[in-house]
Specification:
With 71 residues, this protein is mainly beta. It has one helix and six strands. The strands form two sheets. The protein has a four-stranded antiparallel β-sheet with strand order 1-4-3-2. It has a two-stranded antiparallel ribbon with strand order 5-6. The chain is globular and about 30 Å long.
């Protein structure tokens, strides 16, 4: 099963950029290019175990415009 689903949001942020989720969000919305976004339900930070997006958001607290992946 996939842990990525398309989002209804659109953006002009660069691919890999975080869009700030609602305070009660269970997913993390990421820009993927061409104005499209995806909702991540799970993430796996480098060198760490896979975790649900909500746990990641609680611990990392990314801000809108932060970048996921290699810079």
């Amino acid at each position: 099963s996939s842990d990525v689903c398309s989002s209804d949001l659109s953006t002009n942020l660069a691919p890999g950029s975080v869009l700030m989720p609602a305070k009660d969000a269970q997913t993390m919305v990421i820009a993927v290019g061409n104005g499209e976004t995806v909702d991540l339900t799970e993430v796996q930070p480098a060198g760490k175990n896979r975790m649900n997006a909500l746990d990641f958001l609680r611990g990392r607290r990314p801000q809108e415009g932060d970048f996921l992946g290699k810079a």
